[in-house]
Amino acid sequence: MTNETTELLRTLKRWKERAMEDLDAAMREDPAATSKLMVAIAYQGVHAIWAHRLAHAIWVKYPALRPLARLLSQLSRNLTGIEIHPGGVGSSLTTAWGWSSGRRRSWVTTC
Predict the structure, then answer these.
(1) Can you say how many angstroms the Cα of residue 79 is from the centroid of all Cα atoms in its chain?
(2) Which of 19, 61, 65, 103 falls between 20 and 30 A from 9, CA-CA?
(3) Chain segment 8-65, per-residue pLDDT in tens
(4) CA-to-CA distance for 107 and 101, rounded, in angstroms?
(5) Spatial distance between the Cα atoms of 70 and 95, rounded to a whole number of angstroms
(6) Nearest to 51, CA basis, from 21, 11, 82, 26
């Protein structure tokens, strides 16, 4: 395998691991979450995080494609109602708030 292929496979493995961590966090933190499949399909906060990670990767690695990253963030906002700028800086990101059992919850994840 070429170096590019190996790097792509490593990146995809990391993205899959992060997605599974997000699903685990939602299952752990939200008493209403009944399955990882339901979280992956129906939780707009998770969708917003995933779209942000893709847009942020484009923003950082390919500066010439920043308009594409911004477009992706706007598409995500229209679909989820959550806007996260792709150039956001910081080690943590609070993205989704919800009401559960009378308490406010937040999911915090690193980018």
Answers:
(1) 13
(2) 65
(3) 899 999 999 999 999 998 998 889 999 999 999 999 989 998 998 999 999 999 999 9
(4) 16
(5) 17
(6) 82
